[in-house]
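User: Please predict the structure of the protein below. I'd like the answer in structure-token form so I can feed it into my own downstream comparison script.

Assistant: Understood. Taking the following sequence of 161 residues as input:
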Amino acid sequence: MAVCSGVILLAVCLLFQIRTSNGFSWKDCSRASDPIKFKQISFEPDPLKLPGYASYEGTAYVSQSVSSITAEVTLYKKFLFWWKIPCFDAFPCNFDICELFGRDSSCSFSSGYFKSPKQSYYISRPRISSFLLKGYYSATIILKSHGKQVGCTYVYFNIDG
């Protein structure tokens, strides 16, 4: 919970659940029928500094073989409330998971545990003011195979300009 002083500020902090600490976090939101369940995701640096390099790695359990996986991302920024924001060059709304892992776009993932190796990417800075860029973000990432949902995760992160 945020550190607040004064009754009005405390009420505002409670109402909008303002976070004052940095912290990448994630949550698996896959449906029971989805074959991909996220088990671990890590991301650094935390907070993210733009422009700059970001690294991630993760582990997922795949209950049945899936192929041609794409990711659909919905991005939100916290400013009193969570606001859906449009995608931008540095953060696309759709991408091919196979290409992300350096595989052919029709690649398949067999059943079992899949551990992605640690990978780093350079993320450019969008052309907006630091004031608007800094803050807390969340993203819903839905994995699809041939147009059908196969997995889901929520991620929360902080950008420090």
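That's the full token string. Residues 22-159 form a domain with the Ganglioside M2 Activator Protein; Chain: A, fold (CATH 2.70.220.10).
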